[in-house]
Write a structure and sequence with these properties.
Helices cover about 75% and strands about 0% of the residues. It is elongated and about 70 Å long. The chain is built from 14 helices and no strands.
């Protein structure tokens, strides 16, 4: 931040330095200060798309969703192919509960930038919330092809593949592979990852391993004061001991 402040001292009308300072303040969590800087930039240069996108991001972080949406839409009027802006607009719309519109913009973000893994992930998440599980899985898989070591996405994908109420969407063998990779990345210290791996083992009939893994998860959850997870694991252990896999009901 110091270098941006110095640049402004040297040249007070340097809108790029003001934009950079505003963005840095937002990243540092100083949202109100960042918003002031970015608004000042846009008063001087209303067509500065990067500053407007940064302002939208700051407003989104602050929870001022309607204005954030308006800022992103203004950017898209002049830069309609921007993957990042479509992504940000989708995030804001999703937080407003406008999931169908959010999906539209996440799809545009992913289409504009085929290497944009985060767009694939959030598109999958939003489709999952809409109940479209096969398409959600397809987009999580695409994201993992781009970033194969993303732990939350590995765990989420494995969980759904192991426990989905739709039998046609389950794939126990794939779930085991993803969950074992997640376990390796987590260092064995994440009870939620162990919970997923236990469910995956149960889905492929490896019940002794499911019981042992779920017990490890329960012990860790108890140590980490994650009581609700520990209680859910107790119920799942009983299923695995009875040689029954765990499937979600929704």
């Amino acid at each position: 931040m110091a270098q941006f402040r110095k640049a402004i001292e040297i040249k007070p009308n340097n809108v790029q330095a003001h934009n950079n300072l505003g963005a840095a303040l937002v990243q540092a969590g100083k949202l109100d200060e960042g918003i002031v800087q970015l608004r000042e930039v846009l008063e001087v240069s209303p067509d500065y798309a990067e500053a407007r996108n940064n302002l939208g991001d700051a407003l989104l972080r602050k929870g001022t969703l309607d204005e954030a949406i308006a800022q992103f839409r203004k950017v898209l009027e002049v830069n309609p192919e921007s993957a990042g802006v479509h992504f940000n607009l989708g995030r804001a719309l999703a937080r407003k509960g406008r999931l169908d519109e959010a999906i539209e913009h996440f799809e545009k973000a992913a289409g504009a930038d085929p290497g944009f893994a985060a767009a694939q992930y959030v598109l999958g998440d939003t489709l999952y919330m809409r109940g479209n599980i096969p398409e959600a899985l397809a987009h999580w898989r695409k994201g993992l092809q781009l970033e194969p070591d993303d732990l939350p996405v590995l765990n989420q994908t494995a969980w759904v593949l192991a426990t989905c109420p739709q039998a046609s969407a389950r794939n126990g063998a794939e779930a085991v592979g993803l969950a074992e990779r997640a376990l390796q990345l987590s260092g064995g210290r994440e009870p939620a990852v162990l919970d997923t791996l236990a469910a995956a083992y149960a889905e492929v009939g490896r019940y002794p391993e499911a019981v042992e893994t779920a017990r490890r998860a329960q012990a860790l959850a108890t140590q980490q004061n994650k009581r609700p997870l520990a209680e859910r694991l107790a119920a799942r252990i009983a299923l695995y001991e009875a040689r029954v896999p765990f499937h979600e009901t929704r």
